[in-house]
Amino acid sequence: MSKAFTRESDDDLDDVPVRPLGAELPPGVKNYMTPEGAARLRDELERVTRLERPAIVAGGDARALRDLDRRIAFLARRIEALEVIDPARQPTERALFGATVTVRDDEERERNYRLVGVDEAAPSRGDVSWQSPIARALLGAEVGDVVTVKSPRGEEELEVLRVRYVTEARADETEVRADEPLTVRLRGEAGET
């Protein structure tokens, strides 16, 4: 029988290229995340370690096990480099990590961007990595500032209309608006503090 039709040993799978599991962090850079993002990352590691891995081991699929072990190692490295930044503790005058920033573009369209960690980014929801061009332009901006974002389509100017810090796990929201002084609102309370 020709060698082309024989199954190679599973040891040969080590040479098979594996697609990247996530955006790489520059050397020495912490993996900044919101508390919610960090909890999701830890939950994923626990789920794949306690539920998925035993099922794959029982099924005897060496390739799937190797892929999952790579995922587990990746998640463990990400958690090891984790630095949780609580948006509720950020100063509210500037757009910093964890801020939700409302901007207006040249065509008068308003958009919201939440500045989050690389493992939390979901651009379709407006969650952008703090390393992305839009987040780099917004970091440090205040209400009323105009920032320039460089993208493949060219440069775009955005006016910062609002900076707020919202947390998923808590019911409080801190917000700065262009048309009113700093307010802190606790959902469920009748008044402002």
Protein architecture, described:
This is Gramicidin S synthase. Residues 91-165 form the Transcription elongation factor GreA/GreB C-terminal domain. It holds the Pfam family GreA_GreB. The protein is of the alpha+beta class. The chain folds into two domains: 20-84, Orthogonal Bundle (Helix Hairpins); 87-186, Roll (Chitinase A, domain 3). 26% of the residues lie in helices and 28% in strands. The protein has three helices and nine strands. It has helices spanning 35-59, 62-80, 133-138; strands spanning 31-33, 82-84, 99-104, 110-116, 127-129, 146-151, 154-166, 172-177, 180-186. The strands form two sheets. Strands 3, 4, 5, 6, 7, 8 and 9 form a seven-stranded mixed β-sheet that branches. Helix 1 runs antiparallel to helix 2 (62-80). The longest helix is centred in the first third of the chain and has 25 residues, at 35-59. It is elongated, with a radius of gyration of 22 Å. The termini are far apart. 22% of the residues are buried.
Q: Give the fraction of residues assigned to helices.
A: 25-40%
Q: Find the CATH superfamily of the largest domain.
A: Transcription elongation factor, GreA/GreB, C-terminal domain
The CATH topology label of the largest domain is: Chitinase A, domain 3
Level-1 CATH class name of the largest domain: Alpha Beta
Helix/sheet category: alpha+beta
Structure summarized in a few sentences:
The chain has 193 residues and is of the alpha+beta class.
List the helices and strands and how they pair.
Layout (H helix, E strand, L loop, with lengths): L30 E3 L1 H25 L2 H19 L1 E3 L14 E6 L5 E7 L10 E3 L3 H6 L7 E6 L2 E13 L5 E6 L2 E7 L7
GO molecular function: DNA binding; RNA polymerase binding
Protein name: Gramicidin S synthase
